[in-house]
Amino acid sequence: MVEERVPLTVHGMSVSGNCHKVRLLLEQLGSRYRWMEVDSAHGQTHTPEFLALNPNAKVPLIVRDDGRVLTESNAILFWLAEGTPYLPSDGWERAQALSWMFFEQYTHEPCVAVARFIRGWTPADSPRRAELPRLHERAATALAVMEQHLREAQWFTGSGYGIADIALFAYTDVAGEGGISLQPFPEVRGWLQRVREQPRFLPMPAVTAEVRSRFEAA
């Protein structure tokens, strides 16, 4: 029996927000793909085979059936969404979507995602715990920016749901795991619910004790 060729292979870690972004969009697009789980806690992104795909030693990355490789979560989202309703066709709206995706990577993710990692995967006596108060302050500032936008708009991708929303959703939805309260941000909470109600929505897997223990032992 000849094995069916799959157009895309995705290398990722299921409990990573950056990886889940890609998986969520693929599911909502109804795309065929193969998911390859990567245990970054135990060096799987530093093997010669992985480094040949991405010398930067990070997930997610996708490999097309023609061998071409694309890295960086938001670049992958942009490529996957091209020509679909998840990326506006209007140039100004596309630029606005990209603006929010840069915001996510440079302002939002470095505090919200890092707080989640420190609180969820480092020992209680880790020196990194001292970073949490400052990360929580920065996260509140980022969330306030989102809150202000959402007072006048339903989405971050333009007039409809799309890749900027997916990019911002992944780590915002699990902000509580980093000790970040969403209670002061009712518009953000309403937007999160609207994202969850989208067709073919896929939640990020819960972080189990086994996953945490693997990181602590690494």
TrEMBL record:
CDD domains: GST_N_4 (cd03056). Gene3D superfamilies: 1.20.1050.10, Glutaredoxin (3.40.30.10). Transmembrane segments: none annotated. Residues 90-215 form the GST C-terminal domain. It holds the Pfam family GST_C. Residues 6-88 form the GST N-terminal domain. This is Glutathione S-transferase family protein.
